[in-house]
C-alpha cells in the first residue's frame, strides 16, 4: 500500500516552467515504485532465421503505474538515467531476469539466454562486475544464459570498456552491441572487444525492402559481423518481406513484431512450445 497519496501533477507536460518540478516528481515516484514493486519485465523472443525457433529473449522493463497503467520505458528510462535511479532499477532488472530464467529452466523449458540492457550510467559503476557475479551466484543461473546489451556509447571510455568486457567474458556472460549503426564511435573497437553479437538497429531494418541504401548497409553489417565471428540479430522486423531479405543475406536471428512483441513472462512457455517454421 502507498502511504503518500497520488499528486495532481500530470506526468508529461509541455510547460517548460514545470519541467524541473516534473522531473523531481518523476524521480520521487520512481524511487517509490522500486520499493512498491511496480516495475516488471516483459520478454521479447529472438528467432533463429533458419529454424524459426526461439533462441533468446530480451528483457524489457515496464512500469505498472497505479494511475497511468503500463508505462513504456521510453517515458522513464531517460529520467532514470539522468537521476541515477537507473542504477538500483538496473540492479533489479538484472536480478529479476536471472531469477526468471532460472525458474523457466527449473520448470523444464529448453534453456536459452536472456539479454539485459545496460545503460552507460550502470557501466560506470566500479563494482558492476562484482554485482553481476553475485546475481549469477545467488540465482544459480549458468552464466552462458545471461547476455548484456550495451550500446556504442561505452566506447566513450575505451579503457574501462575493454577491462569491463574482458571481465564479463571471463565470467562466461555474453555481450551484444545494441542499436548497431546509430552510434558515433569508430569501428575500431569491434576488433578488440569480445563481442558475440551485433543487433542491427530498427531504423536500418525498417525499409530494407524499399530503400536500396538500407539494404546495402544491412548486407554489409551482416558480412562484416560474420567476418569478425559475430552473430547478427535484425531488430524491429515486422514483415515477411523483411524476413525473406534477411534470410537470403544470411542474417542469423530476428527480433520484432513479426515474430512476437514483448510479452509478460507467463506467456513465454507457450511461445517456446510453438514449432519453428
Ligand atoms: P531497445 O533495447 O532497442 O529495445 C527494443 C525496443 O523495440 C523495445 O521497445 C521493443 O518493444 C521495440 N520493438 C521490438 N520489435 C519491434 C518492432 O517490430 N517494431 C517496433 N516499432 N518496435 C519494436 P521498449 O520495450 O519500449 O523499450 C525501449 C527502449 O528502452 C529499449 O530499446 C531500451 O533502450 C530501453 N530499455 C528497456 N528496458 C530497459 C532496461 O531494463 N534497462 C535499460 N537501461 N534500458 C531499457
Ligand atoms: Ca543469441
Ligand atoms: Ca536492447
Ligand atoms: Ca535496440
TrEMBL record:
Residues 23-276 form the EAL domain. This is EAL domain-containing protein. It comes from Cohnella zeiphila.
